Amino acid sequence: MRSLDRSRRLLAGAAVSATALLVTLTPAVAADNPAQDAAKKAQLHALLAAIDVTGSALDSGQESAINRHYALLDILRKEFPEVARKVSDPRQLEVTAKEAVVTEDGEVVSPETGKPLGKDELAAIEPPADAQASEASEEQETSEETDVDPNAPAEGDAALAVAGVRGGKWKMTHITYTHRSYFGNTIFKYHTYARFNYKGGKVRAWGKRYDMTSNEDSGVDVGGRMLNRKSKVPASSATSIMKRKVTFKIPVYGEYATVYPWAKVKVYGSGRTKIAGTGA
Q1: In this model, does residue 8 exceed pLDDT 50?
Q2: In degrees, to the nearest 5, what angle opens at C-alpha 44 toward C-alphas 41 and 47?
Q3: Which of 70, 93, 241, 246 lies at a 20 to 30 A Cα distance from 176?
């Protein structure tokens, strides 16, 4: 799926008329009509089904699909505000990244300031005990990358260890994608953790990699890991990506959508990182 920045740029396109969409989805319901509950339930099912379809189409990057998806979410908020509190709205997605560097002397420092990190700062970067570690049997290895950080200072050649990595710096990354509803309620958070070793302009080795979810709403059902990929090292740059299956359920109405949150970190031999990912 496209990056969060790409999604936001596409949202700047012309809006689709929510009124027109509502006309196509809303059954005619008169006041005090005994069939009102059934009709409203049918309307909700139609809306959720349409939101699931348009949400899956967001990958296409087409403005019409993106605008229709968000117009449908706007209708859901208006017609079924309580349900909208539990439905993921990609416009509310928040992305954070915390990082630390382990120096060749074994000191854990901030990559921005170079100052040692306290216990609380380190705890926000290290994976908790319930994070799921990557298993070698499920990992997919992609080709060696050759991208070089253009802003990296010149360094001498790295002595790459074949049987094991010695020296160099280790960098730890913790990426969090917080998924919220139309009203800003947290539905769940998707976390990935990755370590890599770098020196002399090369990514020399991958360390432990993890993923997990937290802060799940009662309607969230977390499934298995769908993707676990890392590129071959040593190399000038390397990429790690993980993806999960998450199903959303609404009380009474049942399951209404499945999303596949993923997070990617691209790392350079200079130690610089670049992240991407999404929640739908």
Answers
A1: no
A2: 150
A3: 70
Q: Residue range 20-37: average pLDDT? A: 44
Beta bridge partners of 186: 180
Asked whether the beta carbons of 192 and 242 are under 8 A apart, the reply is yes
Provide the pLDDT confidence category of residue 66 given band limits of 50, 70 and 90: confident
How much of the chain exceeds pLDDT 70, in percent? 80
Residue 225 in 3-state DSSP?
strand
Q: If we measure between CA atoms, which residue out of 19, 3, 148, 12 comes closest to residue 67?
A: 12
Nearest residue to 69 via CA among 43, 41, 88: 88
What is the enclosing helix (H) or strand (E) of 249?
strand 237-250
Residue 53: burial class (beta carbons within 10 Å; 0-12, 13-18, 19+): middle
Give the side-chain half-sphere CA count within 13 A for 64: 1
